[in-house]
Amino acid sequence: MTSVSRTISYVLVSSTFLPSTSTETGNLALHYSAAEPLSVLLDFLDDNPVWTLDRGLLTDGLTRPAGIHDVRCWTEGLWYHIALSGYDGRAELRMFTEQVRAFLAATADVVPYGAEQVDVDAMLAGLLGGAR
Fold first, then answer.
1. pLDDT digits (tens, 9 = 90+) for 4-28
2. How many whole angstroms separate alpha carbon 82 and alpha carbon 74?
3. What is the pTM of this model?
4. Which domains does the chain possess?
5. 3 and 34 in contact (C-beta within 8 Å)?
6. DSSP one-letter code for 50
C-alpha cells in the first residue's frame, strides 16, 4: 500500500473564510501518500482550497495542543479540533478524535513514523522550476 484516504465528518465550529453557503456539518477527506511522507492533505470536497498539513503536527495534537499560526490542533474529550487561518480568514473544525487517530495509524502502515524519506534535491528543483 502506498497511500491511504479517509472521509470523515466534521462540525464547523466557526469560520470567516469558508463560503456562507457552507453547512455547519459536512465531510472532508484526509489523504496520505508515501510519495509525500511528511504531509497529509485535508480536502473539503468542494471548491475550498485543499490544505497541506504536517503529519507529525496532527499526531502531536492527539496528546497535546500543537501548532502555531496557520494550523493548530488539539483534543477536548471525544473531539479533535483543527484551527486553520490564512489571508482570507480562519476556521475551526472539530471531528471525532478516534477517526483522526485511526487515519494516522493507517498512515503509519504506509510509512512508519521516523522512516520518512524526502529527496531534498528533487524538492528544491521543483521549487526552483527544475534548476539545479
1. 999 988 888 777 755 555 557 888 8
2. 7
3. 0.81
4. 3-127 (2.30.31.20)
5. yes
6. P
